[in-house]
Amino acid sequence: MGIKLQREKKRLLITSIFYRMIKLPLSSNKKLKLFLNLEWIFSRLAHEMSFKIYSPQTHPIRNYAKKFLLDVLDEQQSVLDLGCGSGDVSNIIAEKARTVVGIDHNEESLKIASDKYKRSNLTFIHEDARTYLKTSDKFDVLILSHILEHLDDPKDFLQTFKDYFEYVYIEVPDFDRDVANHYRKDLNMELIYSDNDHVSEFDRYELKDLINLCNLEILREEYIFGVQRYWCKV
Asked: How confident is the model at residue 15, as a pLDDT?
């Protein structure tokens, strides 16, 4: 739910200070780059600080992921959360799914996950996902929450894993969340990524094309808080 505001707004000192920067003796191009860099920096700092204020259970981004996932998941499904990290999403899924396995290469993250989340239907495993799938029982659902943007070849990755599952959940940052990203792209700016270790920043058309190339059918999609979410049938 949004908010209602008075037509007359309170003047804020910090806003006045930054508006004065418009008078700097720089070209419009350089001023736009300056403000885009400042916007990126402050947005990033605010995002990081939000995780110190909100818990994983109360953060708005996690809450929308939870609502989406619990709506699409079935109580009889078995789920593999690939690249589960510290287990926040795995724990959400385990509220509904029959069984959940979180798998990751990072032992330290898995230790945090195992210590934090205790459920009879939730297991965390340190192993290569390809190796694990060759010897495990078949899963119904593959969770790829903030995985594809880290990969050099996301298409090959999806093609490799999708046939082990009936459904695939994909969540990545949304390049189209703000027109500012397109300004940055047009100006060839460096601060255009969401995270240092991202290889790709997908716009919505690009990611849908990737999903279609892998012969996945999009059953449901959502765009909110700078995130793209897709529920796909194999």
From this structure: 83
